[in-house]
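Input.
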Amino acid sequence: MNYIAPVFSGWAIAMRFSKKEYLEGFRKGELFTRPLEQFAKIERRDAQRYDRFEGSEQIVQPKDVKHLTIRDNVTGKEIIATAADLAGPVMISTGREVDCNVFCMFSVTQPVPKPFCDPRNFDFGGSFVIVTDTQQFLNRVKAACDRAGLGFRCGLVGYFDEDEYTGKTGPFSKPKAFAHQREFRIAIQPGSKDVFRLDVGSLEDITTPIHPLSDINEMCDFGPEAAQLAGIPW
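Output.
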């Protein structure tokens, strides 16, 4: 059975940015998925990957806290904090929602004027490929997960204001500082402690050749006029 992702129920483009040698493996069907919480442990200087909120399921801003009680179920001891005691948002996780490995991609789901790719994305590697049939790609990933007995979820990442937002987070939420990444994620469960390779079979028939990432804004046009000329029903 084909897997139909709601986010890609219409026309959409997905791209993968990475080093050339990794993209060669990707086109052969190798998806290297990273444990979600690993992104919170990456060195801070890796600004495009480090995200302290990864691994959380909910955050609460100090302004929304009347008092916070932390209880040790073994000793019965309690620590009570108020908003004034908090230096930043409280991150909450049970581990169930975020026990997963993720595979990250760049997405285009509506007309975007040139230059559509923010240069900050060039830090992900020197090359890119385009997945030309996103539905078939997701079908193959879902089938590979089924064969391996893994759970499968996918969707666009939503972006929140880390200084104002109180609410649910999880694998498909990131601070707005990352909005330029236009991220689409595949999450597989259960997660692993290390990078996990998912073999989905050759993708060469539904991906472009590998191109220099620095040329992406010159090579690709996803603007309104281009979409209209191509007959794309946005």
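The longest strand covers residues 101-108.
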